[in-house]
Write a structure and sequence with these properties.
Elements lengths: L2 H60 L3 E5 L6 H13 L2 E4 L15 H12 L17 E9 L2 E2 L1 H8 L7 E8 L6 H8 L4 E2 L3 E4 L12 H15 L1
Parallel strand pairs: 1-2, 1-3, 3-5, 5-6, 5-7
Antiparallel strand pairs: 3-4
Helix pairs in contact: 2-6
């Protein structure tokens, strides 16, 4: 065989080997690269989906309407707590008023003390004035009352029993002078079908005054917890 023929054959073999190894290399590399790209795209899409889901949750929570409703008597202690809730939760506010006002508080032997006892023992629900808001329009409702003979004040009883609480979130809170009784339990019983956020019992002095014994720090911690939970 002539020298140039050898060179020709050698060149042909070399080209064939390069082609075969090139194909093998490409066949081995490309699927791995493609798999990495596919996995990367899946991870990116999953992360985007999670982020959109979280944003949607925040939007839904932020759009919920909140109302604070309270009945307050004598020194207005329950109203003071209700107003703090209104500010922190950026809520609407409504106050329960009996159609026939109670006599002023004048101590344990006063007329209103005896009247309150009779009404509580009888389960009496006094007539109340219509609220300026429609409860059905709200998703989250805070309800606050003073303690009357170990349970809620009768006007709050009337209010709770007159509403449909199905699907609502209720924030129960109450004020007392050292005898909290079973107010929170009673509120939950009367709000059938509702879910409940953190409740709070706030103590004032036992003489019916406006000196708060529960620390403001404890109230602030409760309010901040609610703000994070509900927003």
């Amino acid at each position: 065989m002539k020298p140039h023929t050898y060179r020709f054959v050698f060149a042909a073999l070399l080209l064939t080997m390069l082609a075969v190894f090139g194909i093998a290399f490409t066949a081995d590399f490309e699927p791995q690269n493609s798999s990495l790209k596919t996995d990367g795209m899946k991870d990116a899409k999953l992360a985007e989906k999670k982020m959109m889901s979280k944003q949607k949750e925040r939007i839904v929570s932020k759009d919920k309407k909140i109302l604070v409703v309270c009945y307050s008597f004598s020194r207005g202690n329950t109203r003071k707590i209700a107003k703090q809730l209104q500010t922190v939760l950026e809520a609407d506010y409504a106050e329960i008023e009996p159609t026939h006002p109670y006599p002023p508080y004048g101590g344990w032997n006063s007329e209103v003390t005896e009247q309150g006892k009779r009404e509580v023992e009888a389960g009496f629900m006094p007539e109340i004035k219509p609220l300026a808001v429609n409860i059905a329009d709200y998703d989250i409702i805070a309800v606050g009352t003073p303690t009357w003979w170990f349970t809620m004040a009768p006007p709050m009883h009337t209010f709770l029993k007159s509403q449909d609480w199905t699907g609502k979130t209720v924030i129960p809170f109450m004020t007392h002078g050292g005898w909290p009784g079973h107010v929170i339990t009673d509120i939950k019983e009367y709000c059938g079908g509702a879910k409940f956020a953190a409740a709070m019992e706030i103590q004032f002095d036992s003489e019916g005054g406006d000196h708060m014994l529960t620390s403001q720090a404890d109230i602030d911690a409760w309010l901040e917890g609610l703000r994070k939970e509900l927003r």
